[in-house]
Amino acid sequence: MRLYSLSVLYKGDPKVHLLKAAYDVSTFNFFQRSSVQEFMTFTSQLITERSALGSRASVKEQEYLCHVYVRNDGLAGVVIADNEYPQRVCFTLLDKVLDEFSRQVSKMDWPSGSPATISYSALDGYLSKYQVRIPRS
Q1: What whole-number distance in Å separates Cα of residue 44 and Cα of residue 32?
Q2: Is 136 exposed, middle or buried (CB count within 10 Å of its CB: 0-12, 13-18, 19+)?
Q3: Which residues of 84-93 are buried (b: 16+ CB within 10 A; e: fewer)?
Q4: Taking the domains of the chain in order of start, what are their residue ranges?
Q5: What is the pLDDT of residues 5-62, one digit of tens each?
Q6: Beta pairing partners, 16
Q7: Exposure of 24 by Cβ count < 10 A (0-12 exposed, 13-18 middle, 19+ buried)?
């Protein structure tokens, strides 16, 4: 069971853009890591773009499961995990991250923000904390 990516995005009009992201590509070959990371960023944006405001969904993309939660205010989160990672845990993580992000980052910064301009450093910590093996029930 593994998490590969945790992203916060803004679903604005007309397009979706990435606000902040954390990746764990350590299990991939060194030469594949940047292209895998680009794939995850692109997939996160695409899935958010195709999801309605106020919706949650899990989408299978190649050998990954992408869990997306788009809030009514346009703030969105995407977790990319393997097929074994529990869906419920992914959505709990997304709830927690989006609530915390919306408290720490002004809503005024969302439409024009980018990973370079948004200061929110908790994603790497959440990605490693939730990376812990979860016992199967």
Answers
A1: 18
A2: exposed
A3: ebeeebbbeb
A4: 3-127
A5: 999 999 987 789 999 999 999 999 999 999 999 999 999 999 999 999 999 999 998 8
A6: 11
A7: middle
What is 3-127's CATH number?
A: 3.30.450.50
> Which tokens hold the place of 14?
């007309």
Residues 6+ apart with CB under 8 A from 137: none
CB within 8 Å of 80: residues ≥ 6 apart? 3, 4, 5, 40, 43, 44, 61, 64, 65, 66, 67
pLDDT digits (tens, 9 = 90+) for 50-97: 999 999 999 998 889 999 999 999 999 999 999 999 999 999 999 999
